[in-house]
Design goal:
Helices cover 9% and strands 37% of the residues. The protein is mainly beta. The strands form seven sheets. It has a four-stranded antiparallel sheet, with no helix packed on it. A four-stranded antiparallel sheet has the order 2-3-4-5, with no helix packed on it. The protein is globular, with a radius of gyration of 21 Å.
Amino acid sequence: NILFYFKIMKFIILFSFIYILFALDLGYIELEASFKKPLYLSPHVNNSEILYVIEQRGMIWELNNDIKSKTPFLDIRDIVHTPVFPGDERGLLGFAMSPNFQTDNFIYVNYINNNDSTVISRFNGNEEEKLLSFKQPFSNHNGGMILFGPDGYLYISVGDGGDAGDPYNNSQNLKNFFGTILRIDVNTSKGYKIPDSNPFKGVNDIKEEIWSYGIRNAWRFSFDKITGDMYIGDVGQNSWEEINFQSYLSNGGENYGWNHYEGDSLYSDKKQISGVVMPIYVYPNNANIIKVLLGLKEDGARGCSVTGGYIYRGDLIPDLKGRYLFGDYCTGKIWSFKYENENILDFQDLTESININNGNKTIYISSFGQDLSGELYIIDYSGTIYKLINK
């Protein structure tokens, strides 16, 4: 009968969709230039042939796109803390090129110096101007991302200060920079300004640079090249890793809940607080960090440290258009989803499809990268850069 016919057609359509979904076969190009503990990749603002790779020890390399050669761009190893043990999160952590680089020649970096202070600096050639500096109480949870938003302002992630559990309750304290994303106006010849549209501008006893707070360690965040929406990968404590979302329509001031909430659950013995913006996605923190630091595989585990990624806006992989890609440092897993109307759609595990983790090899995803064309890269902390392509 006609009802049975429609049921069959519905099954065929659904099966065809699932087949197409799982038939996605991604590949990669390995950029053979060898790096020492690379942490980030960023494009030149107006030259599609040039990429920049930063190393934790304080080096920035200029790399011709898909050409296996590199030249030094900035060397600040003498002023950057050199990591000396596994798990040391200090060093050169972030890099952003001025949108007006052709005329002002400015670049911006986020690093931990030899006195264990976070420093946000502007460089013109080798000449440094320190914009912000504050002491870090511990060696971990330094944040590190620094990125120009679609509004032209500079966004900076600052971790909760470290140790475990945010012992000083920094992330809910707007009197300090810790556990926040900052937003400043660097369209100045010297120093910076507080944008008039910052949510706490003019409020007494609050750091006016704060754009959002309640963050544990937003190691990597990004803006959608088309919509301007912000995606934040916030590293978890004991149980949950999370992805947070901020609409381009936001006026700032979001409280993402840490340390009262880890993911979308209450943390430890903390009490509920109102006004918290919950993550759009969480996954369990169930990998053994000791095994990870020793280089042992963690089969069956989801991860232990989320690495935020990007909305894909390139042309090489049409099936990934409009999808958010992110991964986990500990397990090398890579996932993807679409986020529409406050819903996660079509979640996919891309790890086996991309297949960088083959045999006994595990990549440690310190970052994703995006070039001017919207193509995506994976940065392996062990030293290799991979560009995603269709097989």
